[in-house]
Amino acid sequence: MFASRPAALFLPILLLLTTVNALHFYLDANEKRCFIEEIPSDTMVEGHYRALEWSEKTQEYVLEPDLGIIVDVEEMETSHSVVKTRGPPDSRFTFTSHESGDHLICLSTNYTSWWSSTHIKLYLDIIVGSTKPDIERDRSHVSELAGKVRDLNQKLEDVRREQQYQREREADFRDLSEATNSKAVWYSLMQIMVLVLTCTWQLKHLKRFFQERT
């Protein structure tokens, strides 16, 4: 009974670690809108979008069944395509990152006519580090406490992956700094050697000049 109280206290704090990005924007029928999201490796990302099309008849944005949304996600460093799917105007997409780093998330419509003047209002929610699926199905077989413990373990795993990703970035930055400092040292030594050789040559030249004069 007392052992469950720390988990209950820390669970609301860890739930805040899930990154939720909610926004809405406008785009034309032939326009593609892209966003960059920095994601650790082996992290689940869930997105929910809702696209509304401008209706000249009603003078408002409405849900049009013929409208389709194309979602394209790729890793920017490797250009590897993670997700490329087409869905209805109100739908979801999920994927799990394979490598840590920046991911390019692009959305466009299925309207391909260059003469189309359709305007779209698109709502987008992106959740980075969401819990694994099938939790609702499992809750029918486990107690409420077991479900909270599982959620807590998932959040701790997300924290561990985020810390690992930050350590990798720090290591890359340290290697880059050491390489830059090493090049700067060698460049300074080369400058000193050139100056020494130049001074030596000038001294020999002056000595030979005065010897010839005498």
Give the percentage of residues in beta strands.
25-35%
Radius of gyration: 30 Å
Structural class: alpha+beta
Number of alpha- plus pi-helical segments? 3
* Proportion in helices: 40-55%
Distance between the termini: 106 Å
**Oligomer state of the chains in this structure:** single chain
Give the uncertain stretches in residue-range form.
1-17
Describe the structure.
The protein is α+β, with helices and mostly antiparallel strands and 214 residues long. Helices cover 41% and strands 34% of the residues. It has helices at residues 4-15, 135-139, 144-213; strands spanning 19-28, 33-39, 44-55, 60-62, 69-75, 81-87, 90-96, 101-109, 119-128. The longest helix has 70 residues, at 144-213. The model is unreliable at 1-17 (pLDDT under 50).
Write a short abstract of this structure.
The protein is an alpha+beta fold.
List keywords for this structure.
214 residues, alpha+beta, 5-stranded antiparallel β-sheet, 9 strands, 41% helix
Write the layout of secondary structure elements.
Elements: H1 4-15, E1 19-28, E2 33-39, E3 44-55, E4 60-62, E5 69-75, E6 81-87, E7 90-96, E8 101-109, E9 119-128, H2 135-139, H3 144-213
Antiparallel strand pairs: 1-9, 2-8, 3-4, 3-7, 3-9, 5-6, 5-8
Helix pairs in contact: 1-3
